[in-house]
Write a structure and sequence with these properties.
Blueprint (H helix, E strand, L loop, with lengths): L3 E4 L9 H16 L3 E4 L13 H12 L22 H13 L3 E3 L4 H14 L22 E3 L6 E5 L3 E5 L8 E3 L7 H11 L4 E5 L6 H11 L5 E5 L2 E2 L16 H7 L3 H9 L14 H7 L10 E2 L2 H19 L1 H7 L13 H11 L8 H5 L11 H5 L9 H16 L6 H15 L3 H13 L7 H8 L1 H14 L1
Helix pairs in contact: 1-9, 8-10, 10-11, 11-12, 15-16, 15-19, 16-18
Bound molecules: glutamic acid (GLU).
């Protein structure tokens, strides 16, 4: 049997961490089994629909390398893949339920439904619409909600992650299948589509678990087989006490991407958020994930979101790409993340800068803050220099004197290489009798006026003789 999975997002604009994870697992399962992954856009909730959101979803999946075999752009035998374009299909299935007496047009006005709900709330009993099912119903016509006629009974099923499930009749209700606007509800549409599209594994957030008995009832009433059901655990806030929400510090996937989190790191992090292969391994490429993934190792308890871990992984991936694919490969990933002033410099120069700084980056956008002084002379800030914790015991003239010694020694270097520069720096330590922290802070700050720079000989090497000496001289004059 060919494995067919699907990712079925709603185009509501914002792509949170959990949405993307719901795409990763179906992708991995399909690829591992040489099956198929379908992308289906669930856009029947017209009130929540956001223009451009579908493109954002497609673009995000492409960025992560999660290609789909059927769906928007690529097409396929089950087109259309937008639910809003499949109305007739849902209506045809709905008619089947009407004919078999398992669905009814509901003329009850919404105010009346609310009144029933309030009555139950007052009496502190659960609100089940089937207890208020109208005695007489009219012929169903568009503009009138169509409801399922539930038959209260027990259900037992196996969820691939949550295990054996059992529910009683109290969870079954006359849920709406087709809304007043003629569009189906999620509850109905996904069942029809999963069946029509041949989906074998429905993988989605565990929030749908409580509605599953109602879905099982619909499968039965439609006389169609149910697919395997796979509930993915909640992603919890960093404190672990509740579901991750917008306010818990997690950015949208788009924001992380714009910050310069690499697709590899994002994929790696999210795949391991709620799944592990039982080893201590932390870095996984997409290929390794495809190989190692298994449904049985998806955890059934919530997975705690940890941004620090994501950024750590990003750092690991930056190094991995640099070391395995080379500086140019990493450079190509940095386009758009450099400070504006860098545009005037050659690629070769930027690659040199990247090569000495990449292992300090958390995200690519750190380049903007961390590399400015490689592309423009920094503003001299004598306060920063004089108040530096290693330098503050020196008077201005002592600082000036130290700078002069440094300049004179560096001037003598014939070959401006990082090795020769390191030799010169070592000699300067001996010559001045200063501690490395003191002497090197002086040089580092004078060159960059930044809180951080890579190893001094490397920084000097990349900046070049002329720029380095000009900056040291300028500081000596300004002191
Ligand atoms: N459209 C639903 C959502 O975005 C998908 C749930 C499912 O995968 O079935 O939450």
């Amino acid at each position: 049997m060919e494995i067919v999975t699907r990712f079925a997002p709603s185009p509501t604009g914002y792509i949170h961490i959990g949405n993307v994870r719901s795409a990763i697992y179906p992708y991995l399962l399909a690829r591992q089994n040489h099956g198929k992954m379908i992308l289906r856009i669930e856009d029947t909730d017209r009130e929540r629909y956001v223009e451009g959101a579908t493109e954002l979803i497609e673009d995000t999946l492409e960025w992560l390398g999660l290609n789909w075999d059927e769906g928007p752009i690529v097409g396929g035998p089950n087109a259309p893949y937008f639910q809003s374009e499949r109305k007739e299909i849902y209506h045809a299935w709905a008619r089947k339920l009407i004919e078999s007496g398992r669905a009814y047009a509901d003329p009850t006005p919404p105010e009346k439904v609310n009144q029933y709900r309030e009555e139950c709330n007052k009496k502190k009993i659960p609100f089940l619409y089937r207890n208020f099912r109208p005695d007489t119903t009219t012929e169903w016509e568009p503009g009138m909600p169509l409801r399922f006629k539930a038959e209260p009974k027990d259900y037992e099923w196996v969820d691939e992650v949550m295990g054996e499930m059992h529910t009683g009749p109290e969870v079954l209700d006359d849920i709406i299948l087709i809304k007043k606007d003629g569009f189906p509800t999620y509850n109905f549409a996904h069942i029809v589509d999963d069946y029509e599209m041949g989906v074998t594994h429905v993988m989605r957030g565990v929030e749908y678990l409580s509605s599953t008995p109602n879905y099982l009832a619909i499968y039965e009433a439609l006389e169609i087989p149910r697919p395997k059901l796979v509930s993915l655990p909640h992603i919890l806030a960093p404190q672990g006490n509740k579901k991750l929400g917008k306010r818990d510090g997690a950015k949208s996937v788009t924001e992380y991407r714009e910050d310069g989190v690499l697709a590899e790191a994002m994929l790696n992090y999210l795949a391991c958020l709620g799944w592990n292969d039982g080893t201590e391994q932390e870095i996984y490429s997409k290929e390794e994930l495809i190989e190692r993934f298994s449904l049985s190792r998806i955890q059934n308890s919530g997975a705690r979101y940890d941004e620090t871990k994501l950024l750590w992984l990003n750092g690991q991936w930056l190094r991995k790409i640099f070391n395995e694919q080379g500086p140019r490969a990493l450079y190509e990933r940095t386009l758009g993340f450099w400070p504006k002033a860098a545009e005037a410099y050659s690629e070769d120069y930027r690659i040199k800068v990247l090569s000495i700084i990449y292992d300090r980056l958390k995200t690519l956008s750190d380049l903007r803050e961390m590399t400015g002084y490689f592309f423009a002379d920094p503003t001299i800030n004598t306060e920063m220099l004089l108040n530096n914790k290693f330098l503050k015991k020196n008077s201005k003239s002592e600082i000036e004197e130290m700078l002069k010694v440094v300049i004179s020694r560096l001037n003598k270097i014939d070959d401006w290489t990082s090795e020769k520069l390191q030799d010169a720096l070592n000699e300067l330590l001996e010559q001045t009798g200063k501690k490395p922290a003191e002497l090197f802070s002086l040089i580092r700050i004078s060159l960059s006026f930044a809180p951080f720079s890579p190893a001094l000989n490397l920084t000097l090497g990349v900046l070049g003789r002329e720029t380095s000496l000009a900056r040291l001289n300028a500081v000596a004059r300004a002191i």
